[in-house]
Amino acid sequence: MTATRAETRELVRLPAEIRRQRVIGAAYLFLAFIVVWFFALGSEGDATFRLGQAVGEIDLTFSASGMAWITATIFAFLAGVHLIRGLGKWTNVVLAVALALFAFAFLAWAADGKSFSLLGMLRTTVAASTPIAFGALSGVMCERVAVINIGIEGMLLTGAFMAAFVGTIYNPWMGILAATVSGGVLGLALAVLAIRYHVDQIIAGVVINIFALGLTSFLTTQVLAGNFDRFNSPGVLTSIAIPFLSDIPILGPVLFNQNVFVYALWLITASMTYGLFRTRWGLRSRAVGEHPKAADTLGINVFRTRYVNVVLGGCIAGFGGAFFTLGAVGVFNQGMSGGRGFIGLAAMIFGRWHPVGALGAALVFGFADSLQVRLSILDSGIPSEFLLMAPYLVTIVVVAGVVGRARPPAADGQPYIKG
Amino acid sequence: MRLELRGITKRFPGVIANDSVDLVFESGEILGLLGENGAGKTTLMNILYGLYHADEGEILIDGEPVSFDGPGDAIAAGIGMVHQHFMLVPVFDVTENVVLGVEPTKGPVGTLDVDEARRDVRELSRRYGLEVDPDAITEDLPVGIQQRVEILKVLFRQAEVIVFDEPTAVLTPQEVSEFFTIVEGLKEAGKAIVFITHKLGEVMEVSDRISVLRRGKVVGEAIPGEITAAALAEMMVGRPVNLVVEKEPAQPTGPMLEVSDLVVIDDRSHRAVDKVSFVVQSGEIVGLAGVQGNGQTELVEALTGLIVPISGSVLLDGVDITAASPRARHDAGMSHVPEDRQRDGLVLDFDLTENVVLNTYHGRPYSRGIVMDWEAARQRAVELVDQYDVRTPSVDSVASTLSGGNQQKLIVAREFARETKVIVASQPTRGVDVGSIEYIHRRLVEERDEGSAVLIVSGELDEVMALADRILVMFRGRIVAETTPAETSNAQLGLFMAGEAAS
Amino acid sequence: MTEEEMVEEPVAADSGDRPTGPLWERIAPSNLDWRSIVLVPMLAVIAALAVGAALIVLTEGVAEVPVAYRALFQGAFVGIGSISETLVAASPLILAGLSVALGFRAGLFNIGAEGQMTIGGTTAVIAGFTFSDLPMLIHLPIAILAGFVGGAIWGGIPGWLRARTGAHEVITTIMLNFIAFRLVDYLLKQPFILREGRFDPISKDVAPSARLPDILDWINPALRLHVGFIMALLVAWAVWWLLFRSTVGFEFRAVGANPDAAAYAGMSVTGSTVLVMAIAGGLGGLAGANESLGILGNVFSGFSSGLGFDAIALALLGRSHPAGVVLAGLLFGALRAGGRTMQVRSEVGIDLIVVIQALIIVFIAAPALVRAIFRVKTGKGTGQLTRGWSA
């Protein structure tokens, strides 16, 4: 064996990949055009972004059209790069940055001649990202062992319900515990249906969603309605400023003056990354997701690994669901998860089944989500319905643009049948 | 160590896979376990490895009965298995694959001790002369090296009995001889080796003892050197084997399929087919020989229209079909027996009628406009089933209920019964019983004699030698040799397949 | 030696990680065993009602169970009024169920029936009030067609995205549901569509010539059963014909059962994907038109009221066969109609029906569960279809 195949290999890009790069290039060109036509030509004044807590503390004032011209130039450049040679594995990261840039130019146009709290926007982004990120992490947990979890939406919703219900009766901490456990129970249900009964995993997930929506709605009308004070007024957990870290300009208030859910998110993302890629548990989990038969022949219990991870994934989603009631709104409303679980799935794909990637992607979606909240304040003239569509539209764009390249765990979605 | 299987019986619904099998494995000895596809070899080894439970019989280690509840128990008892389809996680590096399941760890949360693992793997590969880069990503390694990783896995678990299931199926002849050296080394180191295969030559070359399995039973034992290959073959299939195909010399009548400078990129961006040119004439059978994974699959996909080549051209009867759709190719007279019949050839959940019209349903007599005429289709299916000897209770049966041989005959019927100009047959007899093999071979020759250009892609040297009028050898995406069965020998062909260029 | 004598190794050893069998088969086996066709669905319904009863006990006490279930039964079946309501509720369910079932047959998950209904219902209404001087024989078909086309566009988008980019239809159809709700909310505010003198999102009324006419009003004008039910039955027959008697349907089924073999046989997998999703979307649109041109006469925010999600359960229960979908649609229609009566006459809310429907699919999808509960033989378990996220 003198020459290995790696040496004789010639790196030639696939036609499909070339086409994808061209499509992305064309999309950049289109965006550049939009930026010029609407944002650059459509604004004349200065936009002021406030980055401090108070007006005038840290202000960023610049010409909105100048910002748009710069963005358009960068987009045109990116379009050229994609059309000529492509960006390979950096495509997704660059795409995420470019989307942020586009949003920035958009905000500048919307804030043209006005002053706008970018800090507030970023804080809303983190808050809006939180449930999406928990959903995405739940997805990573399950899909790394090759179980597709479409039921995240239902787990978030159930978590939100239980957090409100138990949180009102006892205290918020018991509420969080109940939310986590209820998510775990639904995770177990998914695991039993998918692993033991080989029910198609997408079907099982859809069933869990329908069941969760029906049950929480039923219990809301039967139990919560009319007993608001007794069962559905848990209140919102206040932000806790972390000493010193929260004093950092801009980053401090955005990242380190939030409630426990956000801190838990940082913690879970970090420990999941470490766990999946540095520990025995992670190595075995990934083996089960990539090649369950190989894992089985090495004496690794495929079923147990899947059960454990899917239940843990359910717990993460249930915990994340508690954010809706205890971390944001303070009461439970029917169907309040509003598709965040599905967006979380898209974030997981965009983040390439990696916890950090999933978190990053969730921030992108969260940004789109927070746009509508902030833009309605600016009164930009865009109908609120279209702003409300933003997170869903961005999800479709991202899934359509990315899936072709991303590589899921090899056994994803397939039940393991022994022998 | 002495491992004994006693009276092992395993039944699956409708079949007895193993019928009171007795076998003994001893340290420092290589046992060849010979049998046809479907003779029950793999089932037997899966029982030994704890993947299946035997219905009857027992396993003894040094005279003590043991029972395995799963591979974990078998591994703990010192049994290691190198599976036919490698059990390697493609995206893991070599070290991760070797230590998976018995990982060295440190710290309270089971942190992997990567340094120690890598050191262990290095040490082990040095000791047994199995050179591997512990940090290489497994899927990037050539098959021969992947097999070394499998062997390292087994050794890392301190196995005393090592079972190799069809280990040479995917190796080049050169890799095979390297593999035999490794096996000899393991034997010297005192391991008990079980070598499962259906290849007579190899089992004669490397084994100390041979046991022959047929229809789930041990039908004979032999010592190499004391038995002839012919006698062994007869023992294996239960009757004298005649793999010679009766045929007249070919009478080619001019080019039908012309391939020039074809380049195909596979899904991992490699040049799987690299400037391949050849011609198949009407009235001849061209055999395309080569070890699996040298670009044959991609070449066939380009010929049948499933991949668009990035350059080069394909002419069918003088017409350029390089960019034509699969349907346009069918309609122009190209027939195709795909390599993986269950995946690409049949819709297993459709009945025989539906499968028979799978690629002709869109025209008369089976449909008018968009209206299907199922009566006409069914009639056709009845005819073909009868004509091509497909054994089935009815054409309304679902294709998945047919045996492998009959499924293949169904595809052959569908593909050959049309007006054909070119037939591309990939591994036409893989996993098919002897009776069906002979039948399919005869049909291929008949098609040739009726004027079709036939291209056969096969990894079986014997098949290519028996059927082809001309032989092309493919290696790493290129045609490296062209010869005829009369001008060459199995040994010479093996060298070509290993990339030793023709002189 | 013949092959009958050969020992066939069990196929599972190597192909275990490859999904086998077409989608509907893997979701619900279709072997013509009475147990899996009759017994399992029946037992599943009984088990789901039992769990529902337990929920009532937990929230309202034991005494409420007979009250609620009696109302449920009476509202669904007792008297011509109840039957009319059941059929009225069943009509859009059948159409939306056919939409999902067609997708299943072709190996695609159409979770977007809800959004397709929303769009289709709205386009039908727009056609229904825009042309006001046409005779019914022309106007009604135009309005229905508008519903079909609206839904087909909304379903075709995810089909096209799947075929072109590999974006999984589960995510894109769900996202398009949300987008459809917002889009219709926006449209309803436009002066062109918004009813005069109203500020809440509700459309103008459809002209009488575009309304689906009532059938039983000669018995009692209060009976709401309309021609939409007959339309649903006809469409079910048409879907059956398309699937099993046409070349197009043959392609759909082949692509759904084994896309690799279909491609080898020269079928266009991408073309089939787009077409299936467009037709499925059109059927969803018809479901919406059935509601908006039938009992509603207009559209408002959220008028689809979850019918598109019930349709998923219904398609599973009906084993993705048009005849099964009709029967399952009647059952779910009865649950909906009865549920409304239950909500009025007892303390139990109609959301219980959603829980019961979800439980029915759990038991249908996992016959082993039914087997464990009732100790009967139930036929083989269900498999799966998912090939992961990439196309």
Description:
In chain A, 69% of the residues lie in helices and 4% in strands. By secondary structure, chain A is mainly α. A three-stranded mixed beta sheet of chain A has the order 2-1-3. Chain B is of the alpha/beta class and 503 residues long. Chain B contains 17 helices and 24 strands. The two termini of chain B are 49 Å apart. By secondary structure, chain C is mostly helical. Mean pLDDT of chain C is 85; it is low at 1-21, 26-32 and 378-387. In chain C, helix 6 (113-130) runs antiparallel to helix 7 (136-165) and helix 6 (113-130) runs parallel beside helix 8 (169-189). Chain C has helices at residues 12-15, 23-27, 34-60, 64-77, 80-105, 113-130, 136-165, 169-189, 228-245, 247-257, 259-264, 269-296, 307-317, 322-345, 351-365, 367-374. The longest helix of chain C is centred in the middle third of the chain and has 30 residues, at 136-165. Chains in contact: A-B, A-C, B-C. Chains A and C meet through helix 7, helix 8, helix 15 and helix 17 of A and helix 3, helix 7, helix 8, helix 13 and helix 15 of C.
Q: What are the defining features of this structure?
A:
heterotrimer, A: 419 residues, mainly alpha, three-stranded mixed sheet, two-stranded antiparallel ribbon, globular, disordered N terminus, C: 391 residues, 16 helices
Q: Provide the gyration radius of chain C in Å.
A: 22 Å
Q: What global shape of chain B is seen? A: globular
Write down the secondary-structure element order of chain C: HHHHHHHHHHHHHHHH
- Name the biggest interface: A-C, 63 and 66 residues
Q: What is Rg of chain B? A: 25 Å
What distance separates the N and C termini of chain C? 43 Å
Structural class of chain C comes to mainly alpha
Total number of strands of chain B: 24
Short description, anyone?
Chain A has 419 residues and is mainly α. Chain A has helices spanning 5-8, 15-40, 64-84, 91-110, 118-143, 152-169, 172-196, 201-224, 228-231, 251-255, 260-278, 280-290, 292-297, 302-329, 340-350, 355-378, 384-402, and strands spanning 46-50, 59-63, 115-117, 240-241, 257-258.
List the helices and strands and how they pair.
The complex is a heterotrimer of chains A (419), B (503) and C (391).
Chain A lengths: L4 H4 L6 H26 L5 E5 L8 E5 H21 L6 H20 L4 E3 H26 L8 H18 L2 H25 L4 H24 L3 H4 L8 E2 L9 H5 L1 E2 L1 H19 L1 H11 L1 H6 L4 H28 L10 H11 L4 H24 L5 H19 L17
Parallel strand pairs in A: 1-3
Antiparallel strand pairs in A: 1-2, 4-5
Chain B lengths: L1 E11 L2 E12 L2 E6 L6 H8 L7 E6 L2 E3 L4 H6 L2 E4 L11 H6 L5 E2 L4 E2 L1 H14 L15 H14 L4 E5 L7 H16 L3 E6 L2 H7 L2 E6 L2 E6 L6 H9 L17 E11 L5 E11 L3 E5 L6 H9 L6 E6 L2 E2 L5 H6 L2 E4 L3 H5 L6 H5 L10 E2 L2 E2 L1 H14 L16 H13 L5 E5 L7 H16 L3 E6 L2 H7 L2 E6 L2 E6 L6 H8 L6
Parallel strand pairs in B: 3-10, 3-11, 6-9, 9-10, 15-22, 15-23, 18-21, 21-22
Antiparallel strand pairs in B: 1-2, 1-4, 4-5, 7-8, 11-12, 13-14, 13-16, 16-17, 19-20, 23-24
Chain C lengths: L11 H4 L7 H5 L6 H27 L3 H14 L2 H26 L7 H18 L5 H30 L3 H21 L38 H18 L1 H11 L1 H6 L4 H28 L10 H11 L4 H24 L5 H15 L1 H8 L17
Helix pairs in contact in C: 3-15, 3-16, 4-5, 4-14, 5-9, 5-12, 5-13, 5-14, 6-7, 6-8, 6-12, 6-13, 7-8, 7-12, 9-10, 9-12, 9-14, 10-12, 13-14, 13-15, 14-15, 15-16
